[in-house]
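tl;dr need the bound structure. longer version: we got a ligand (iron/sulfur cluster) that a collaborator sent over and nobodys looked at where it sits. i said id run it. heres the input, straight from their email, havent touched it
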Amino acid sequence: MQTQTVEFIRPVKPKTTPQRWSVEAVEELFKLPFSDLMFRAQQIHREHFDPNAVQLSTLLSIKTGGCSEDCGYCPQSAFHDAGVENRKMLEVSEVVRAAKAAQEAGADRFCMGAAWREPSKEDMESVVEMVKAVRGLGMETCATLGMLNDEQTEQLRVAGLDYYNHNLDTSPEFYGDIISTRDYQDRLDTLERVRKAGMHVCSGGIVGMGEDLTQRAGLVAQLANMEPYPESVPINNLVKVEGTPLADTADLDPLDFVRTIAVARITMPTARVRLSAGRQQMSDAIQALCFLAGANSIFYGDQLLTTGNPDVERDRALMDKLGMYPFAEKH
Ligand code: SAM
Ligand code: DTB
Ligand code: SF4
């Protein structure tokens, strides 16, 4: 791995590394002076990663809309009228075509997302074929399909799934304000099954949903205290979609988003922290601060699931401007 650590900012290991992060300790990190927080995050980032390399994941919605869950942020919930057209599952050939295009554009991971509470037996048959085919292209595979049982995690592992994305989304205390059709424990149970099956865990959350600082810290503490913590941690800024209950939520101060990235980096030093949804609405300057705070992964390609993302040209220009490069091209 290429390291570019300069002597005078060589990371200093804290004398006592907390094994478990209390919500209070995470909240204290959030309250640090901005420069001190960024400095700590940079130290830890450089201890574990090439600070100029960014991992690129492309998303594809393999089944869109009509979801039976009532997540307040999500345009794909059947409870809301966000104008998303319900579509049946894509054919395997369509998924492979999209994965090849993503690979040619420089993505190294391909994430297949479905608007399901959980996949059915028939759904799993198609998903298994998709995972095998994308893996066959030499890409890392990721899927996000809702809740899984033991049989399904095993099927995905055998098919060659590298990562399973299942977000905790917010703190246990705020969860009920956002979702009523499932419990926090349901999410934790699926994550445990994914881990037990031997796949990498991708789990993060959304900020800017009206949570207070303690609740934001509560999400990070939950993630950081998982044993082990997730290999991949997507931090999403709420994309406000007309027709969803959260459409009129007050804007999060962009610097508070940057702080969340920094706190995730400090509490989960070896995780890939992904600057996820919300980049289209973000300035280059804020994105640069997110990279400085320890983000080292992005969604790459002009579409998230149902909403937009910066196009490849804008992201390539941003990487060039910052002297950054795709992780897979240099490593
Ligand atoms: N249905 C599956 C599930 O909920 O796990 C997989 C797809 S779901 C769309 C994946 C994740 O997208 C959610 O957990 C949430 O974190 C994120 N997401 C959905 N709508 C969003 C929005 N409007 N803004 C930011 N993130 C969002
Ligand atoms: C994640 O944490 N964010 C992605 C991915 N995992 C599946 C999804 C973002 C969705 C944003 C709203 C949309 O495009 O529908
Ligand atoms: Fe369904 Fe996932 Fe959207 Fe919730 S976040 S409504 S489970 S697609």
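gonna send this back to them w/ a short note. The two ends are 7 Å apart (CA to CA).
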